[in-house]
Each structure stands twice: as structure tokens, then as C-alpha cells.
Specification:
This protein has about 450 residues and is α/β, with parallel strands linked by helices. It has 12 helices and 26 strands.
């Protein structure tokens, strides 16, 4: 049965949005505007996080360029008329038009009915069953991931600076990033700048102890961009001491080393995996047509054979009749998919005409650190300072809410003057007894964030 504590008291058709990423939030914000105009709807957003995370800036949190709270927006500040449930999704019954969620400290459950269901569940990291990765690799998909990586780097700087760690400095100060796409390149560029810029505060760590390795199975970095920009990115990273290993894959991870497909073993305590994602596994339990694990939808974002069910973002396979194939699962597509879907729900309720989703990528950008970047905007290539400036300008404009824009702009301005912060963030209470065998700060954060 539907629980009254889960949703508001408004009348009208019930719209349930599952997922608070780019696609889900965009749909909710658009429906918020429709509600302000008097739309007869009851809209509920369900998400495990009570904030929306601006993931293109995660690497800047990991590299201590931005405060961790400045790239996230509380959902309750973004949405005033849309009901919000901070809960996990337990099951979806399309036949009965019900969603079961769990929330609260005791994880009690509610079963919520809907008239329109919006599936915006996103994707998860795919380790491709590579030995050791699920247990030991770090990822870069969430705010918690960025904080864990930052804490890991600081923790290893602290350990490597001690006299007793002299024999293990090289593995401690070696970071391997798997994946030469946007996430991998930007993560390693930021990490490289952060670690090398911090060495002046760690006098016992020689610069030649630091080793940064970027592993990519393709022939060129950033394959989504022009090949020339990929080569430029590789050159810039190599100039800053990064080893770029092309044409190889990570084949395993132990506590002591990263194994590559060419037989190389890289002694390292830190592997960051950005080399693969999969649609949310909850989709596998739905009686819907799927391809490549993603839900098949029509050009109006309706799930095939299930009236009232819609899907978008990473979990949907959206046809692109103009260019053939399907739309890519990028943030700029997800934002526009959310707006189109919201308009179509309103139109379907009011007897209006549905609008097909049509959008072509405007451009793509990547930051390479040290005020350099690469970009392709409307078919025109940019590199160096101007690409970095475009990256910051465009993403700052896309960040929700003026308050967060100002905070990020201030962070970036202060970063021009002051050195990066080296403080670890502890997320669990410290031990009551001094000298007890308490977990290391990084481990506390990892356990709390997992």
C-alpha cells in the first residue's frame, strides 16, 4: 500500500522519478516549473543521496582544487514543489505500477504507486571480472570516491615521508590510473599536480620517487575527441612526468602491484579504475526489452511495450534517427533528455503533442591541469590555456545555483594564490583511548563511504 509519509498530499497523476543524477534532476527541475504553472501532477524524486553531485568536477575535489561541498547541491534546495525521498530502491513492479523503497535508520519500507515511472538509475562501475579490482581498486564516480582518493594520496604522502618507509617509498608514491577517457585523463592530471605540488611539505620524499602511470588500451588518449587533441594531451602529461602506456590493459591487482597485459608489473598501492561502466543492475530484473543492458526506448523516451514507463540517461538506449545508432550517455545529453521527458509527461497528461528527443553534441572538453586543456566546440579544436579557460567557464555556467557558482569561482581564485590543502577528512569518531589500535584516517573514510 502507498504510505502517506512518503509523498506529499497534492492530487493529480503520480510521477515517480528514480535516480538523482543529471537525467533525473533535470526531469525533476523541469516538472517543478510545470507545477509552478499549475500542472495537475504529484511528482516524487527518489534517490539514495540527498544531493546532486556535479561529477565533471570530481577530479578537482580529489586534487584539492575545490572544497568537497562546493560541487554538490542539496536536492531540497533545488526542488520546492517536487516531493523528495532519500531512500534506496528495493524493487519495481511494472505490472502493479508500484515501487518499493527503504529508508531511515531501520531501513523500513514503503510501497509507492505511480502513473508515470521515470527510470534514471544511471550506471555502475564495471571491473570486467578483472582479478583484484573489485576488492582493491578505487573509482571516480561519486563524491565519496573523490574524497577517498584524496585521503589515500595524503595518507601515502605521510607514510612515505617517514624514515621507516624508505624502502617502500616507490610503491607508495606510484599511482596507476586505468582508462584514457575524460575521467581517467582528468583524474591523473589532477592527481599528478597535487602530489608533485605537495612534495615541498614532505622533505624526505625525493621527486624521483613519484611515479604516475596512465594505462589505456587504445592507440590514442581521449578517443571521443580529435586524434590530434589526444596526442596533445599525451604530450602534455608526459612533459609533467606522467608515463602514458597505450595499447595495454590492466589484467590484475594485488596489494603490491598492478599487472598489465604486456606482462609488466607496476609496484603500486593505488589503482584508480575509470575504464568501464555498466547499466544499473536493477534493470536486469525488469520485464522490458534491453540491448547492451540498457532499456530500449522510442524517440519520445517511452519504454517499449510499457505505457507510462519512461527511461533516460545511462540506463536507456535512445535512438538517433538523424545520425543513426543511439545517443551517447553523456551529461549534456542527459540534461536535455530530462527536459524533453518532463515536457512529454506534461503533454501526455494534457492531451498535447509529444516531442521527440533531438540533440547533437555541442562539444567536449577535458582539463589537463596547470591551466591547460583540450576541447572540441562545434567542430573546432582548442588546446592549451584557451581550452582550459573554456572548460572552467562552461562547466561553471552549468553548475546549479548561484551560491555554488560563487563558491567554486572563489575556490579557483584562491587556488591561484595559496597551496593546496593537505588535511584528511575523517568521517567516523576518533578512538576514545589514545594509543589504541585505531584504523588509519583513510580507512575510516573508506569504510564510512562504502
Amino acid at each position: 500500500m502507498q504510505d502517506s509519509c512518503a509523498v506529499g498530499a497534492r492530487k493529480g497523476s503520480r510521477v515517480m522519478i528514480l535516480g538523482g543524477g543529471f537525467a533525473g534532476i533535470a526531469a525533476a527541475i523541469r516538472l517543478e516549473k510545470a507545477l509552478a504553472r499549475g500542472a495537475d501532477l504529484q511528482v516524487t524524486l527518489v534517490s539514495q543521496e540527498n544531493f546532486f553531485s556535479f561529477t565533471p568536477m570530481l577530479h578537482e575535489v580529489a586534487a584539492s582544487d575545490l572544497d568537497m561541498t562546493h560541487i554538490v547541491n542539496p536536492v531540497r534546495k533545488l526542488l520546492k514543489k517536487v516531493d523528495f525521498m532519500n531512500a534506496g530502491i528495493q524493487s519495481v513492479d511494472l505490472s502493479r505500477k508500484e515501487v518499493t523503497i527503504a529508508h531511515g535508520s531501520d531501513q523500513h519500507r514503503h510501497t509507492l504507486g505511480y502513473d508515470h515511472l521515470v527510470l534514471a538509475l544511471g550506471s555502475i562501475t564495471n571491473f570486467f571480472d578483472t582479478p583484484g579490482l573489485a576488492e582493491g581498486a578505487l573509482t571516480m564516480k561519486t563524491l565519496g570516491d573523490a574524497i577517498i582518493l584524496r585521503n589515500r594520496l595524503i595518507d601515502q604522502l605521510e607514510e612515505a615521508d617517514t624514515e621507516c618507509a624508505a624502502g617502500a617509498r616507490r610503491p607508495l608514491m606510484t599511482v596507476v590510473v586505468a582508462g584514457g577517457g575524460f575521467a581517467g585523463v582528468e583524474t591523473l592530471a589532477g592527481v599528478n599536480d597535487f602530489v608533485r605540488g605537495s612534495l615541498r611539505f614532505y622533505p624526505h620524499i625525493p621527486p624521483d620517487a613519484v611515479r604516475m602511470v596512465l594505462v589505456h588500451p587504445g592507440k590514442v588518449l581521449l578517443p571521443e575527441l580529435d586524434e590530434r587533441l589526444g596526442r596533445y594531451a599525451a604530450t602534455k602529461l608526459q612533459e609533467r612526468g606522467v608515463e602514458v602506456r597505450l595499447g595495454v590493459k590492466v589484467t590484475g591487482l594485488t596489494g603490491e602491484a598492478v599487472a598489465l597485459s604486456d606482462g609488466t608489473q607496476i609496484p603500486s598501492r593505488t589503482l584508480v579504475w575509470t575504464a568501464g561502466t555498466s547499466p544499473n543492475p536493477m534493470l536486469a530484473g525488469l520485464p522490458c526489452r534491453r540491448e547492451r543492458g540498457r532499456l530500449c526506448v522510442d524517440e519520445y523516451l517511452r519504454v517499449t511495450d510499457w505505457p507510462g514507463v519512461w527511461a533516460l540517461g545511462d540506463c536507456a538506449l535512445i535512438p538517433d534517427p538523424k545520425r543513426g545508432g543511439f545517443h551517447p550517455p553523456t551529461a549534456q545529453h542527459a540534461l536535455r533528455e530530462g527536459r524533453t521527458l518532463a515536457d512529454n509527461i506534461v503533454a501526455s497528461e494534457g492531451g498535447g503533442r509529444l516531442r521527440p528527443f533531438r540533440f547533437a553534441t555541442l562539444g567536449q572538453l577535458a582539463s589537463l591541469g596547470r591551466r591547460t586543456g583540450v576541447a572540441n566546440i562545434m567542430g573546432v579544436n582548442f588546446s592549451g590555456f584557451i581550452a582550459w579557460w573554456l572548460w572552467r567557464t562552461i562547466y561553471l555556467s552549468k553548475l546549479p545555483r548561484l551560491e555554488k557558482k560563487v563558491r567554486v569561482a572563489l575556490d579557483w581564485t584562491l587556488d591561484l594564490v595559496f597551496s593546496k590543502d593537505l588535511v584528511q577528512f575523517r568521517t567516523s569518531p576518533s578512538s576514545a583511548a589514545s594509543g589504541s589500535a585505531a584504523a588509519r584516517p583513510t580507512e575510516r573514510v573508506e569504510r564510512a563511504a562504502s
